[in-house]
From TrEMBL:
Residues 62-211 form the B3/B4 tRNA-binding domain. SMART domains: B3_4. GO terms for molecular function: phenylalanine-tRNA ligase activity; RNA binding. This is B3/B4 tRNA-binding domain-containing protein. Pfam families: B3_4. Gene3D superfamilies: Phenylalanyl-trna Synthetase, Chain B, domain 3.
């Protein structure tokens, strides 16, 4: 299991930070009809109840944006993924379909407002992860984004380097159809409230759609 720690930089920027990680054995698939029925239902609900200006006011999204500012990043240029996903749907652009594990994590991010890191656990190097702040010119290849400037972004690092930020995860540890073990990290920059529910939602969706027993949850701070 993983030992996840928080750097002093993050503790200073966000004293109330709480985290939860779900580790589970999984079977991934290219597409899951039941999951997409849930995604489409949420999309209709979001569009009917939310205005664009409401998105950044969601507590989890607002808290993540504030941490970006405190760490030196402009959240309007480098949007947290939960915010970016909601904005995409509000603009009438369909959510991209990748595979069941990625789509599942995106649904939890959309519902909860948390920017959630979803990793192929077998690609993570070592058993220790630390949440720190990106440095100038620190190498990081965002999924589908090429080289990403992570200076000032919160970033999880394994023994080799950065694997995930709230804006984008790294190509090196991304999930794919061969993924057998998932590590999903929920970042509670808004504190404890809602964290347990989001982690539980990941477990329930894994049970329903990824041939999993839901795995186990690790809480850290």
């Amino acid at each position: 299991m993983y030992n996840i720690t928080i750097s002093e930089e993050i503790k200073n920027a966000c004293p109330i930070f709480k985290g939860a990680a779900v580790y589970a054995e999984v079977t991934n698939t290219a597409f899951c009809e039941g999951l997409w029925e849930e995604i489409n239902a949420f999309t209709k609900e979001l569009i009917s109840t939310t205005q664009p200006e409401d998105i950044k006011l969601h507590p989890a999204i607002a808290a993540t944006r504030e941490v970006y500012k405190r760490c030196g990043k402009d959240p309007s240029r480098y949007r947290p993924s939960a915010e970016a996903l909601r904005r995409r749907l509000i603009r009438g652009i369909d959510l991209y379909q990748i595979d069941t594990l990625v789509d599942l994590i995106n649904l939890v991010s959309l519902r909860s407002g948390y920017s959630i890191g979803g990793f192929d656990a077998d690609k993570i190097q070592g058993s220790n992860l630390e949440l720190g702040v990106g440095r100038a010119e620190e190498p990081f290849e965002g999924i589908g984004r090429g080289v990403l400037n992570i200076e000032g972004l919160p970033v999880y690092r394994d023994a080799i380097g950065g694997i995930g930020t709230p804006t984008s995860d790294n190509e090196r540890t991304k999930m794919d159809l061969d993924t057998k073990h998932i590590l999903a990290i929920v970042n509670g920059y808004s504190g404890q409230e809602g964290l347990r529910e989001a982690a539980g939602m990941i477990q329930e969706l894994l049970k329903k759609y990824a041939s999993s027993d839901g795995g186990e949850i690790i809480y850290f701070e």
